[in-house]
Write a structure and sequence with these properties.
Strand content: 15-25%
Largest sheet: 8 strands, antiparallel
Strand order of the largest sheet: 3-2-4-1-10-9-11-14
Structural class: alpha/beta
Distance between the termini: 29 Å
Radius of gyration: 25 Å
Number of helices: 20
Shape: globular
Bound molecules: fructose -6-phosphate
Length: 614
């Protein structure tokens, strides 16, 4: 996710800002920039790539010493990672420079409005809309904080904004909605940032802004209001973490932090997909609708966790679209001479966008004239570039090697794609699609609820510290969840783990079950034809052979209770949405167990985050 810092005070602002950006490098980014005010005008330096590129640009063309500055590391969402798209963005009239974290959903309409008024845009970003709107307001003589409040009232979506005005070199303003912003309170100096890591070197006194608040910052103090200008309460706190912990927002591992980011990541993936008339839109998809209507086969191609996300998606896609959907491991795809025609739609899923096996599969599919849609988390990476269309997951950077929020957002994005295809092909009514979208939109707070129930999972990790093998069972969409749970244990806790379709157990794997073997079972919601009861029988089968059953089931599921040694209740959702909840305790269990075993959770042995070799 983007990193944001703003400074006003007696130090050399440029240095404070660049140091703050370096402290937030862990957040992941693909371009960086700084703006200061000198002699009544804005000066900006910004560069694609690492902060090193920015510091080289600053060395070649230095910025003056000033007492105010803002800086940004950008994780590209709208528009690729280029110099022009990097922040800060300056309004055409040269009055304001602005940085942004988040997604402005209604930017296209606002951009059109501004262009009609003659405003000339220099980037492809949603952010520039906010910079231009603010520039227009202050040029009318509106006070800077009032102007920012007016802009915020016009924006839909998620945003943290920080802005400076060339006419006021002693003041910066910032705002937040659904995106983080903290203020650092120093002695005769103040800071704003995405997180405390950016200013912890200078002060540990911080203020957390609430939802829909604007802060007006000078070196002597801060004033907090809501978007209408009413005084607002914010939460002061003292930072007790050291710098390395602050980078992980107080978590011990990036993986654990990313597990906890999942409610936000899923919400961001779903953000802005409905038009005002209630139709679903995927604006990164540029394949003509007639071509999508003529598709007679879908092949999902991916690796590892992304492949399991595809397995989940198959159930939804075939159910909603009534088109055969195959799911294929990318490294196997082109070697089996798959049947691909012009009417085959290939969907690739990749968090990094650089996985060589997946990339080779895309090239093969396109050589056979299939259309390729990429579901990807990394704007500007190779896989989206080589695909016909792309749907971004907006999970923010995933730094832990084991995929967590990557997986959950891939499932959510696959569902969006499935619903979009159902809409285009007319296989579902608009109100059916809207109902599922509403159910999806309700999922992020439920993931949060699951995250708040982790105490028994921690106990299980302590209990199974010396276990040699763990089994995971599921049926229907619970089966890929079982595979994902097993993969997490293998890769970070180095433990033998297998996921099975629960019904397949009796055809062989049940021989592995012996006294004390932990078996996690994902139970579908009750009332799902006979599936629920069948899984309850499967639990009894393993329990009769001495297994210790850890059952993930819908809360209030009394039928399952007698057969669960440990019962983990999941909030009620429909069967297809259950993976978005059931995966979370399994991720957490693996993280907890690996931590107890003293392993490096974020960088497990033999693994890399981006697998760029076949
Ligand atoms: C598992 C994991 C890997 C990746 C796989 C695909 O936790 O992280 O299995 O899912 O290497 O990576 P991407 O999604 O980047 O193509």
């Amino acid at each position: 996710m983007c990193g944001i810092i703003g400074y006003v005070g007696p130090r050399v602002a440029r240095e404070v800002v660049v140091a703050g950006l370096q402290r937030m490098e862990y957040r992941g980014y693909d371009s960086a920039g700084v703006a200061v005010i000198a002699d009544g005008s804005l000066q900006v330096r910004k560069k694609a790539g690492k902060i090193g590129n920015l510091t080289s640009a600053l060395a070649a063309d230095p910025l003056p010493d000033t007492e105010i500055g803002i800086g940004h590391t950008r994780w590209a969402t709208h528009g690729g990672p280029t110099d022009a798209n990097a922040h800060p963005h300056v309004s055409t009239n040269g009055r304001v420079a602005l940085i942004h974290n988040g997604i402005i959903e209604n930017f296209a309409a606002l951009r059109l409005e501004l262009e009609t008024q003659g405003v000339c845009f220099l980037s492809q970003t949603d952010t520039e809309v906010a910079a231009q709107l603010l520039g227009v307001e202050v040029a009318k003589g509106v006070d800077l904080a009032d102007a920012l409040r007016a802009v915020c009232r016009r924006l839909d979506g998620a945003f943290t904004l920080v802005a400076i005005d060339s006419a006021q070199p002693d003041r910066l303003v910032a705002a937040r909605r659904n995106s983080p912003l903290v203020v650092g309170i120093g002695q005769g100096e103040n800071f704003v940032a995405s997180d405390v890591a950016a200013f912890i070197e200078f002060t540990r006194n911080a203020v957390e802004l609430g939802q829909d608040q604007v802060v007006d910052v000078t070196r002597d103090g801060i004033t907090v209001t809501d978007f209408d200008g009413n005084p607002a309460l914010s939460r002061p706190f003292e930072v007790t973490w050291d710098l390395s912990a602050a980078e992980k927002a107080g978590f011990d591992w990036f993986m654990r932090k990313e597990i906890h980011e999942q409610p936000q990541a899923v919400a961001d993936t779903l953000l802005g997909r409905f038009t005002t008339d209630g139709a679903l839109k995927l604006d990164e998809l540029h394949i003509p609708e007639e071509e999508l209507r003529s598709v007679d086969k879908i092949i999902i191609v991916a690796c590892g966790s992304a492949y399991y996300a595809g397995l989940v998606a198959k159930y939804a896609i075939e159910h909603w679209i009534r088109v055969p959907c195959e799911v294929e491991i990318a490294s196997e795809f082109r070697y089996r001479d798959p049947i691909i025609t012009r009417t085959t739609l290939v969907v690739t899923i990749s968090q990094s966008g650089e996985t060589a096996d997946t990339l080779m599969a895309i090239r093969h599919a396109r050589e056979q004239h299939a259309k390729v849609i990429a579901i990807c988390n990394t704007n500007g990476s190779t896989i989206p570039r080589e695909s016909d269309a792309v749907l971004y997951t907006h999970a923010g950077p995933e730094l832990g090697v084991a995929s967590t929020k990557g997986f959950l957002t891939q499932v959510a994005a696959c569902y969006l794609l499935g619903l979009y295809l159902a809409q285009v092909r007319g296989t579902m009514f608009g109100d059916e699609i809207a109902q599922i979208m509403n159910e999806l939109a309700a999922v992020p707070p439920l993931i949060q609820e699951v995250l708040e129930r982790m105490t028994p999972i921690k106990g299980l990790a302590r209990q199974f510290g010396n276990t040699k093998s763990v089994l995971f069972l599921g049926r229907h969409v619970g089966y890929p969840v079982a595979l994902e749970g097993a993969l997490k244990l293998k890769e970070i806790a180095y433990l033998h783990a297998e996921g099975f379709p629960a019904g397949e157990l009796k055809h062989g794997p049940i021989a592995l079950v012996e006294a004390g073997v932990p078996v996690f079972v994902v139970v579908p919601p009750q009332g799902r034809d006979q599936l629920h009861d069948k899984v309850v029988s499967n639990i009894q089968e393993v329990r009769a052979r001495g297994a210790l059953t850890i059952v993930l089931a819908e809360e209030g599921d009394l039928e399952v209770e007698p057969f669960a040694d440990v019962l983990f209740p999941l909030p009620k959702v429909s069967t297809l949405l259950q993976p978005l909840l059931a995966t979370v305790p399994l991720q957490y269990f693996a993280c907890e167990l690996a931590t107890l075993k003293g392993y490096d959770v974020d960088q497990p042995r033999n693994l890399a985050k981006s697998v760029t070799v076949e």
